[in-house]
Amino acid sequence: MKRKIMAAIICLFFGIQGCADKRKYHDTTKSESAASGSQIVKEIVGFQNKLNEEFRNPETSPLPDRYRKDFEGLDFFEPDTSFRVIATLERTADALPFMMPTTTDRLSEEVVYGIVKFILKDKAYSLEVYQNVELMDTAEYKDYLFLPFLDNTNGKETYAGGRYLDLAIPEGNSIILDFNRAYNPYCVYNKKYSCPIVPKRNFLNTKIMAGVKSFKQNSNK
Fold this sequence. Notes:
Mean pLDDT: 85
Low-confidence stretches: 1-33
Number of strands: 8
Order of helices and strands: HHHEEEEHEEEE
Shape: globular
Largest sheet: 5 strands, antiparallel
Helix content: 10-25%
Distance between the termini: 31 Å
Structural class: alpha+beta
């Protein structure tokens, strides 16, 4: 199931006061674990194409005009199905809200919805997954989950501050993490955006060679 978040809510969650850009979270999917490798690659390429279209469109792009006018496309790692894993979701029902720092003075009120545990390339990892307090109180968007993470590509192949994944609350206790859908915070492209800072707890001591690479202002590729 694909979902879209209204621009007004996005400006509350990631934006700064006076945000006028029409933005939305990138689509999330609940793909079946039995999907074929070729179908998964096709979905990843579709995600990349859709993200590029959003960046070209002045109504949805975070890019300033001076970058968008010559924009050819984001730089992605090649699709790699080994970075698509099925994780176990352990819900933290008694977690209290906390204020997550952002790249500006704004604080984002979050709750640790749960811990996702998974095996990636024969090693075990766990990450906290968050739910925004404002969004969880809305009927249409209450199933949105936010997964920011750091890894050993940061500052080299990818943005130094880490990347994000968008997820949806699953019906059971398993959830698909597709790191091919990892994307940069919008403040990477435009400093007017206020983006949550990835908690150090969500560091993966490995290289996640999937998703969006770092953005070079003097080159679209």
